[in-house]
Amino acid sequence: MRILVTGATGYVGSRLVGALLDEGHEVVAASRNPVRLQAFGWADRVHGVALDAHNAEGARHAFADNGPIDVVYYLVHGIGQPGFRAADNRAAATVAEAAAAAGVRRIVYLGGFVPDDEKLSEHLASRAEVAEALTVDGGPDVVWLGAAMIIGSGSTSFEMLRYVGDRFPVMPMPGWSTNPIDPISIRDVLYYLVAAADPDRVPAGAYDIHGPETTTYAGLLRSYARIAGKWRAELPLIGLDTGLVSVVTSVVLPVPGGLAADLVESLDHPMMASETGLRSLLPDPPGGLIGIEEAIRRALASRRRRPVDKLADPHHLADTDPDWAGGDTLRLRTLAAPLTPSFARPTLGLLGLMPGPVAAAVRTGLDVLVGLVPKGRTA
């Protein structure tokens, strides 16, 4: 099929492009700034197109000027940006209307779980509203895949878990940290996304995707610390709401503040998959779904950044993932390597022996010194 991927420069989108190419599809990679596409290892294997989901006329031209499209993957979001909820709704409607006018048959949208709570965070409420906005009369059918936390280096939610586990010798455990969650590995996300393009395999509708295990956010922190070889004490906290934690998180973690805050506020809800899932329609990936601890091990096995199409495992860190991703030790090695003589570079491995809080302080100071401006958007 001929497939257009919006959000192709994001975390999921950049890996999805490679997975679609491996399946033999023709890929049109969309970005507001097509020049950015040249940084990705698959750039010479795709057709790049300028598409700004917030510009209706530009979106129509993007479809009209680039030939027939069978399927559109919608991976655009503005979480972390002021007023993102309303802006995301308008952007989804804009792309859906342009796709309908161009005769696109299907839109595949990756969103999040939406709990049955009366009061949802802005992030969770927005995910459901975007799915609704993508559905237009006479337009493409829509497949909405909902996922909770995606485990893999470069994933915003995993990077937040990493930094909490690395930087806090005493891990805070608020009451809501015991809410259940059904995480999923990035390998399995890509498997389900690729399958969702085929109407013979996946009928239109909403489906939750998840890994083989249910845990809690506290359980994820414990698993991360154990696999990373870090001893961490726990501090139960009663009455600490996500609003306060989101403010603290945006200050003490290198993840862009608005993005971190919006994600933390979503932790106030159970993140369990509904009974409507793709496991009832599709066989599991070869070798089975990847469990939580194996996914974390794969993510932590990433020692340096590589081109996204050359990753040995999609859990590894790509050279196009955000600069703030990958952990404090990797960031310190990256900053120090150009200043270290080649014969002495093996000694940079000793940075891994630096205590987490110390590495965090040094990394923060160096980032300020070099004027690091974090990339604030991942999909």
Could you characterize what this model shows?
The structure is a single chain. This protein is an alpha/beta fold and 379 residues long. It folds into two domains: 2-215 and 270-301, 3-Layer(aba) Sandwich (Rossmann fold), CATH 3.40.50; 327-372, no CATH class. Helices cover 36% and strands 14% of the residues. It contains twelve helices and 13 strands. It has helices at 11-22, 56-64, 84-101, 122-133, 156-167, 186-196, 217-227, 242-252, 257-265, 292-300, 328-336, 356-370, and strands at 2-5, 26-31, 47-50, 71-74, 106-112, 141-147, 150-151, 170-174, 180-181, 184-185, 205-208, 215-216, 233-237. The protein has a seven-stranded parallel sheet, with helices on both faces. Strands 7-10 form a two-stranded parallel ribbon. Strand 4, helix 3 (84-101) and strand 5 form a beta-alpha-beta unit. Helix 2 (56-64) packs parallel to helix 3, helix 3 (84-101) packs parallel to helix 4 (122-133) and helix 11 (328-336) crosses helix 12 (356-370). The longest helix has 18 residues, at 84-101. It is globular and about 55 Å long. The model is unreliable at 375-379 (pLDDT under 50). It comes from Mycolicibacterium hassiacum (strain DSM 44199 / CIP 105218 / JCM 12690 / 3849) (Mycobacterium hassiacum). Residues 7-122 form the NAD(P)-binding domain. GO terms for molecular function: protein-containing complex binding. This is NAD dependent epimerase/dehydratase family protein. InterPro entries: ComplexI_NDUFA9_subunit, NAD(P)-bd_dom, NAD(P)-bd_dom_sf.
